[in-house]
Amino acid sequence: MLSGKKILIGVTGSIAAYKSAYLIRSLIKLEAEVKVIMTSASCDFIAPLTLATLSKNPVAIDFVKNKEGEWENHVELGLWADLFVIAPCSANSTSKLVSGNCDNLLIATYLSARCPVWIAPAMDLDMFAHFSTQENLAQLSEKGVRIIEPTSGELASGLDGKGRMEEPEVIAELVNDFFEIKSNLKNKTILITGGPTYEAIDPVRFIGNHSSGKTGVLLADACAARGAHVILVTGPTHQRVNDPRIQVIRVQSALEMKAAVEKHWPTAKVGIFSAAVADYRPAHPATEKIKKKSDDLTIELVKNPDILAWAGQTKTSVQFLIGFALETQNEIKNAQGKFERKNLDLLVLNSLRDKGAGFGYDTNKVTFIQHNNKITNFELKEKTSIMEDILDVLEQEIQ
Ligand code: PMT
Fold first, then answer.
1. Atom of ligand 1 at shortest distance to CA of 305?
2. Cis peptide before 88, with omega less than 30 degrees from 0?
3. Which of 46, 86, 179, 318 is deepest in the core (most CB within 10 A)?
4. Do residues 360 and 302 share a domain?
């Protein structure tokens, strides 16, 4: 059931707009609170009065609400929703979601929304198959918008093919499943570290490494999808989390990462430390840019604190700690040493000797090391799939 859940339905100009009435009815039956935004084009396909009556709320269409010139607050609507489902989503609106061309209330609300956004495309088969539409959908999906794939069948044009909006009852069921997370991780606080650290040499230069930050971000999204409260402490990265509920703390250096971890680890249930932390930092970073004077330059380095080892030392009996190890030789032996020394419950080993593994790739090849010398090898696979493997172990191991 969806009691207490606020669902915002966006309706755009498509013959499938009539299906939004059934979707709203299904959601109301599941006890959701529903509000509706329509584009003016969609009003040619279904009357706002129908959707207002079914949703039990006034329908928002324009930036101006009434003759008195009262403003329709799209920011408020965007913040109100726990989930924004645009169904049907026309080719035109799909393209505007990508470009951010907010010449109507629906797109303005989308730009203000902080909740997950889903779209159910509906259009003729050739429009759907067109590279422009496909590229738009790929971009939206990459940025975290969930695409509810259209189905195949007879279309309004009389043609037969893929482009029919998914059935409203199926969408309502997806919404219900989304909120009914059964995971053991639901509501647990998970602290994640990710990305590289940059250790300043001077205001211009730093010592860093090749971590893209992908692993940390994918871990964060995977944990959030299972209902966890996620805090991601990440070094510099261009990667973005998809789930707006994730608390992201951006840091530069190992010392900054340690300070953030010290603050949040005591109240976390689980720690997953995937960051590639620089082991050393310049002892005396220059306050001004170092000038090119002599032929050589020596930079004195001092050891950074081992953040994971600190978390292992302070770990309580109810906390679960996962570390990563990036090795280039004697992989298993070195990783087992780290597992013991850092007091871990799971160690995810990856080796730079494996093709497609480690920094930057969308894939990785990992080995899990657990208590009682348990070793599990995995084939090269998508990093997203590895995150699920890690969380599946976690689900079994924590209370
Ligand atoms: O970000 P991507 O491009 O997706 O790349 C992912 C990755 C290769 C960075 C990731 O899979 C990985 O292997 N991360 C750990 C890299 C690393 O620093 O390994 P390590 O063996 O040096 O460190 C062991 C563990 O101690 C790690 O969990 C690390 O986060 C932690 N550590 C290390 C040093 C330090 N000073 N503090 C730490 O917390």
1. 36
2. yes
3. 86
4. yes
Tens digits of residue pLDDT in 329-343: 999 999 999 999 999
Pocket test for ligand 1, best of 239, 253, 308, 368 (most atoms within 8 A of CB): 308
Residue 73: per-residue pLDDT: 80
What are the backbone angles phi and psi of residue 270, rounded to the nearest 5°? -130, 140
Our count of domains for the chain comes to: 2
**Are the beta carbons of 344 and 325 closer than 8 angstroms?**
no
Question: How far is the centre of ligand 1, averaged over its atoms, from the C-alpha of 316 (Å)?
Answer: 22
Do both 209 and 291 map to the same domain?
yes
Predicted local confidence at residue 65, as pLDDT: 80
- CA of residue 55 relative to chain centroid, distance: 29
Quote the domain boundaries for residue 170.
6-180
- Identify whether residues 175 and 194 lie together within a single domain: no
Question: Could you say which of 209, 304, 364, 377 is catalytic?
Answer: 209
- Say yes or no: CB of residue 304 within 6 Å of ligand 1: yes
Nearest protein CA to atom 31 of ligand 1, as residue: 308
22 and 116 together in one domain = yes
Q: Which conformational region is residue 254 in: left (phi greater than 0), alpha (psi within -120 to 50 degrees), or beta?
A: alpha
CATH number at residue 113: 3.40.50.1950
Q: What is the dihedral of CA 186, 259, 201, 327, to 10 degrees?
A: -50
Confirm or reject: Cβ of 211 under 6 Å from ligand 1.
yes
pTM assigned to the model: 0.68
> Is residue 113 located within the same domain as residue 215?
no
- Spans in the chain with pLDDT lower than 70: none
pLDDT digits (tens, 9 = 90+) for 120-179: 999 999 999 999 999 999 999 878 899 999 999 888 888 889 999 999 999 999 999 888
